[in-house]
């Protein structure tokens, strides 16, 4: 039994004639008759009683069509739903982001996305650890996640979004505040304000300082970027963060070592094409990060198996 045969039976029953049904279906009348006969042969019953040029449903035909019509209705609804997802008129999207990304990069991206696609159900999850996002993407809990590069969990792939230099955040009256660039070793004796142990930004602070020959003395730990900024602004200590994290803070000095940078990427499950809703958000992320990045991310080619 073929789907088109169900449609043909319904069309003939409605038209009351093979000729008129063939015209509605844009078929040759002999082809329509052949398909109906094939179905009747498969079922072992006649569905129509032929009365000259007119036809009426047999009792078996009425019983058949009683179930065929709802099936055709639900199939059409299924087609409409699939097209709506393709056209971004419906869908769901779950994205994960590090706090530094959620507070700076994503708000405008998501606002523009929501304005363009208001019927997409969007869910944002924030987490401090990139590895947890990789796991959530791998098992299908997230469609996309913005994580610190490099990523390495099996079953996921991704694309670099942004490479941004590290900067020193200083109190407004700090003696080094007017420098064009700063050797990080000059802050080796300072008190630092840092994010909590185990977070990506804390690990980045420590690895950057260690590359310059010292371990930072972190006197205040916080899990909130706003608290970190407030502590530095009021002279509690200094901090070293990626440029995006310091966006809007008034006293920022770039580091002079080109090795001091952070790369962020967006990851998704490997082995298939991104859903339309996820692909549209990825396009917006790539466009937005060109403004902040020292490298220009590639555009998405949706002709590939994965972008």
Automatic annotation (TrEMBL):
Belongs to the LysR transcriptional regulatory family. CDD domains: PBP2_LTTR_substrate. It holds the Pfam family HTH_1. Transmembrane segments: none annotated. InterPro entries: HTH-type_LysR_regulators, LysR_HTH_N, LysR_subst-bd, WH-like_DNA-bd_sf, WH_DNA-bd_sf. Signal peptide: none annotated. GO terms for molecular function: DNA binding; DNA-binding transcription factor activity. Gene3D superfamilies: 3.40.190.290, Winged helix-like DNA-binding domain superfamily/Winged helix DNA-binding domain. This is Uncharacterized protein.
